[in-house]
């Protein structure tokens, strides 16, 4: 058989020697998966899950698998090349990129260079800090299980949390990100904000509203899980995805409680289409789930009207800060999913978003930082500024 794949009569035919083997090797693009047999012999049937679509799919959700990949590639820009060893043509390209980057930076200037301006605009208001995790507090790494934050970053986040209401809002599972961060002073919103937990009695006397729960140490917590009824369907889809992608070299499927991440970071680009098609074939049978794209990642989540912006809004209300106009939320994040939080702050006309990026991106954030090391510097500046101010007041 010729290498690569052929499209014929609405079918995708993949070469078995170079692509992963699965029952989906020859399938119509429009087919629905009615049931799937797992390796342990059990059968999963989506028809046994009487879940109805809650929100109509967006244009992006209806886009083809090629659209997903294109969006994912656009969010995963190549590293900027080193100017010194490039050819003349490459240098011209780099010059052009540099000009464009500087123009973008004038619209989204450095939050470090403009630290004093940020403090000035927040004058008279109480700052609250909201942080993404991957790519913001930790570097993006090949193995998502190894996205550790540095001890310096942990100290900075702990100091920030002792001075300002602070929460982490991440696509990871809440438990996973807590394992990475290991700070009990914070609120954690996992699964893109679909799994929120924090101390019932927050810092500075803030009392969060919500369902009371106890953590494993018996501390009183507040728990909010708007997608709790999707637990079973997410578990089922995770098992299916594990099965159909197990032979894709480098593919990693991560269970994030109320969403699932499919990591492409260690998959050769020539296998991206095959992997995305496997995901599509599974997802086709679950209209109550939707797919979003990030940096070398596809994510499956419940089709409910909930995102990091809604989670930020909930947290502000839970902390008793939502209706106060003397609160100044600062949200720092690096990914497309963080844009919902940036948009919320723009709508609120108070607070600001900071995008972490070394490259040009469409964003609703006002300011930018290049990488987690600059986030660390920014957080340390905040701590020093607040401590100086408190010392002056004493
Ligand atoms: Mg991130």
From TrEMBL:
Q: Which cofactor does it need?
A: a divalent metal cation
Among Pfam families, the record links this protein to:
Trehalose_PPase
- A GO BP annotation: trehalose biosynthetic process
Entry keyword Nucleotide-binding: no
Family membership noted in the UniProt record: Belongs to the trehalose phosphatase family.
Involved pathway(s)? Glycan biosynthesis; trehalose biosynthesis
> EC annotation?
3.1.3.12
- Tell whether GTP-binding is among the UniProt keywords: no
Instruction: Please name the GO terms that the record assigns under molecular function.
Output: trehalose-phosphatase activity
Q: What sort of enzyme, by top EC class, is this?
A: hydrolase
Q: Which reaction does it catalyse?
A: alpha,alpha-trehalose 6-phosphate + H2O = alpha,alpha-trehalose + phosphate
Q: What is this protein called?
A: Trehalose 6-phosphate phosphatase
């Amino acid at each position: 058989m010729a290498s690569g794949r052929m499209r014929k009569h609405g079918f995708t035919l993949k070469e078995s020697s170079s692509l992963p083997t699965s029952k989906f090797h020859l399938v119509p693009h429009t087919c629905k998966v009615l049931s799937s047999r797992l390796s342990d012999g059990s059968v999963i049937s989506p028809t046994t899950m009487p879940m109805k679509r809650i929100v109509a799919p967006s244009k992006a959700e209806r886009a083809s698998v090629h659209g997903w990949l294109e969006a994912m590639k656009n969010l995963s820009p190549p590293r900027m090349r080193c100017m010194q060893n490039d050819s003349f043509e490459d240098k011209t390209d780099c010059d052009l990129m540099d000009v464009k980057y500087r123009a973008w930076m004038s619209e989204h200037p450095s939050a470090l260079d403009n630290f004093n301006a940020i403090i000035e605009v927040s004058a008279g208001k109480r700052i609250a800090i909201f942080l993404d995790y991957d790519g913001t507090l930790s570097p993006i790494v090949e193995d998502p299980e190894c996205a550790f934050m540095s001890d310096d970053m942990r100290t900075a986040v702990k100091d920030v949390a002792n001075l300002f209401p602070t929460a982490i809002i991440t696509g990871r599972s809440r438990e996973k990100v807590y394992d990475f961060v290991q700070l009990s002073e914070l609120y954690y919103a996992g699964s893109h904000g679909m799994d929120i937990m924090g101390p019932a009695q927050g810092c500075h006397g803030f009392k969060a509203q919500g369902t009371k729960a106890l953590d494993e140490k018996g501390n009183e917590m507040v728990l909010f899980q708007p997608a709790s009824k999707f637990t079973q369907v997410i578990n089922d889809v995770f098992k299916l995805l594990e099965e159909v992608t197990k032979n894709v070299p480098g593919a990693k499927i991560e269970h994030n409680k109320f969403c699932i991440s499919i990591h492409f970071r260690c998959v050769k680009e020539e296998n991206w289409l095959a992997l995305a098609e496997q995901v599509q074939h599974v997802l086709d049978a679950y209209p109550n789930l939707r797919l979003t794209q990030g940096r070398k990642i596809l994510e499956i989540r419940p089709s409910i009207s909930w995102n990091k912006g809604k989670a930020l809004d909930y947290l502000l209300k839970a902390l008793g800060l939502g209706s106060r106009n003397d609160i100044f939320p600062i949200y720092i994040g690096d990914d497309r999913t963080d844009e919902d939080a940036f948009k919320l702050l723009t709508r609120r006309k108070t607070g600001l978003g900071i995008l972490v990026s070394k490259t040009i991106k469409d964003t609703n954030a006002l300011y930018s930082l290049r990488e987690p090391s600059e986030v660390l510097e920014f957080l340390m500046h905040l701590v020093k500024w607040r401590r100086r101010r408190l010392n002056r007041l004493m």
